[in-house]
């Protein structure tokens, strides 16, 4: 009886590992969008001071500039591993603007992560509405980190990248700067 229980527990653990590894991993969306929807643009976020701002307002702040949107959270191990390469991408592209959208679970977590990971000098916003919202749903956000490149007209130039090392990010930036 004890052996059967032990075997059942192992089967359960292996099943959960498989589901986690393959069932909840990033999957490239079927449609790679080139524009933001009206609902996505209206999505509100908060800055570190609690001021609300919409995605549309953020894009207006970066009008006529190339913008890289970086989705991250302090609890996300993959995001933390990506930080050094994201910093390199920023340094390599000084004329490109970077905005960091946090998926922390609370305002306190957001503020702590900004300090802990030395993000206070960067442009950061937090989805106070949580992961499921009009913007994240529209961009098919199913995992983080995630990167989107926005062109000078506020259109989506690179819809889906899961690492700052994705060569298509730099290729897209290079094409937009010509």
TrEMBL record:
SUPFAM superfamilies in the cross-refs: Thioredoxin-like
One example GO MF annotation: isomerase activity
Tagged with keyword Disulfide bond: yes
GO biological process, one term: cytochrome complex assembly
Record domain Thioredoxin: where: 34-178
Cellular compartment(s): Cell envelope
Chief location bin: other
GO CC terms, sorted: cell envelope
Domain of life: Bacteria
Protein's recorded name: Thiol-disulfide isomerase/thioredoxin
Species of the source: Epilithonimonas xixisoli
